[in-house]
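Task card 7
Instruction: Convert sequence to structure tokens.
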Amino acid sequence: MRALLIVDVQNDFCTGGVLAAKGGEEVVPVINKIASSFDLVIASKDWHPEKTAHFDKWPAHCVQNTKGAEFHPDLQTENIDVVVLKGTGIIDDGYSAFEATNVKLADFLKEKRVTELYVTGIATDYCVLSSALDAVKSGFVTYVVEDAIRGVNVEENDSEKALKQMQDAGCTLVTSNKI
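Output:
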């Protein structure tokens, strides 16, 4: 069984958001186009409390129950089977969807007999990277959909470095037209 993981396609990570990845909203039509090709679709959300140590490193973003924490309005949420929430505590960063607090994602995927996981979303160099690495560690054949990810790029080449790190860990890079 194949599953799609949509990582943090939220308002605060798209144009106009407090921690926008350049072109973050550009992943939305690609994700919408491929979502129906999968047996199961999971989406993660950064879901931070108002006060968290995470905001010592980053501007306040994706605060629970705010417009910034909502999915991008053009993301077709009817395709999403389950939403996992991460970064919900006062001391956890919650970069990986596998750190979700409401669903133990690895166990859930194994119960659903998922063998292949395709990763999309924002940010290539943080949450997509962490989620893809955890997917490999959890035993899933992991694909990263290159035209459906965008990075924050705190440093100039962070996304390129993240792609190499994912490949080195065993992820396969694909484009949406190959799905």
